[in-house]
Each structure stands twice: as structure tokens, then as C-alpha cells.
Amino acid sequence: MRMRKKKHGEERIQACAELLIEDPSTLIADPASPFSDKSKGLCLEIGCGKGNFAVGTAKARPHENLIAMEKVPDVCCIALEKAMACRDERPDNLRFIIGNADNLSEWFPEHCLDRIYLNFSDPWPKAGHAKRRLTHRIFLERYKRILKEDGRLIFKTDNVGLFDFSLESFEEFGCTVEWMTRDLHNSERAADNVMTEYEKNWSEKGFTINSAIVRFN
């Protein structure tokens, strides 16, 4: 479902400008430049939605800096406002980009990220749309380029078809799946899991969540 256009969306986004990275060249020159403490690890969430995961992770992992990317401005507006509302409750470790995974090389230099989060990406279920899936080889190439050698991809989805496709894609690309589950909320990692808005709603309806931690060799 397409989100209704936000009233005064552009003005609302600019009101949160202190958390928004608008110039890709600043990250290319120094990926840690938006943050007050540049010594922290740097992570990226692709497709942050309304920001629950980004805000929750920034609070739960104060030793890391997180950049949350969202391609839809009206959705990112909600995430930005959510982050602004609680900026005094967490360290200065969260920023946002309005952009998408097609343009990662324009934003990030090689081998700068410790972790990439993919949370409930569009499954693109039609066979002809496989190349649009964020775990297709096309995107894995991009992630490998910007992840550090010991970096990790953290993947969550409720879609079984996308999860099966992703596991095959990881194997074919030569990745190592260090950990996986088809029921995250009843796994040993449940306590540390930060839920997205979608994840919370879907799990309350009884659906299980698939997850994997992937290393690029």
C-alpha cells in the first residue's frame, strides 16, 4: 500500500536536518564525519521504514554509529521525527539518508561498514523480479564492496520464499551463513532482537520470523 503524501513533508524533513545526511561526498570522504565520536563502529540499515529498528538499535548499541537509509521521503520523515523526539535519550549515534540500495557506491567508500541490516525487504515474489531482491547477487556485490573484511550482513524476513532464495543466493555467492533460524523470536537471540514496526505487528498475528547472520568471504 502506498503511503499517503505527508502534509508539509519537505518542511518536516528539513526540521530534522541535523539528523539527515544530504551530501554523499561527505561520506565518501569520511564515512564517520556525521558523528561526534568517529571511533565507533559504523553500521547501515537499508530500508529503515518508520524508524523503530533504527532508534531502538541506536539506544541498544551505543558503541556503534548507525546510518538508516530509506528511499521514500514521506516514510523517512516519520523515522526522522521519531529519532528527533528521543535524541536526548541516546548517544549521538544515528543519522538518516533518503536514498536506496541501487546507489550505495555513491554514498559509501570501500570497506567502511561493520554491519549491514536488511529488515523485511520487499520480497518481489514474481520470478522476473528476482534481480530487484536485496539479497540478489547484484546487491551482494555492493554489500561486499562497502563492508569491512570482518563485516556482517544481518537479515530478517517473514517471507519464506525470500528467505529460501536468500540462503541459495548467499551460498552461490560464496558467503558463510554463520547463524540462521526460522523462528527468531523463540531462538537464543530473541532477547537482543530489536523489532521493526512491521515485525511487531506480524509476529503478534502468529507469524514466525526468519533470520540469518552472513559473512562475506
Detailed description of the structure:
The radius of gyration is 17 Å and the shape is globular. β4 (113-119), α6 and β5 form a beta-alpha-beta unit. The protein has a 7-stranded mixed β-sheet, sandwiched between helices. It has one domain (9-215): Rossmann fold, CATH 3.40.50.150. The chain is 32% helix and 22% strand. The protein is built from 8 helices and 7 strands, in the order ααβαβαβαβαβαβαβ. It starts with 8 loop residues before the first helix and ends with a strand. The mean pLDDT is 95. It is an alpha/beta fold.
CATH hierarchy: architecture: 3-Layer(aba) Sandwich
Rounded mean pLDDT score: 95
Strand content: 15-25%
What is the number of E strands?
7
List the strand order in the largest sheet: 3-2-1-4-5-7-6
Measured between the Cα atoms of the first and last residue, the distance is 37 Å
Question: Quick one: CATH class?
Answer: Alpha Beta
Order of helices and strands: HHEHEHEHEHEHEHE
How would you describe the shape? globular
DSSP summary: helix tally? 8
What class would the helix/strand composition place it in?
A: alpha/beta
Give the CATH topology. Answer: Rossmann fold
Helicity range: 25-40%
Task: Please compute the radius of gyration using only Cα atoms.
Answer: 17 Å
Could you give a short account of the major beta sheet? 7 strands, mixed
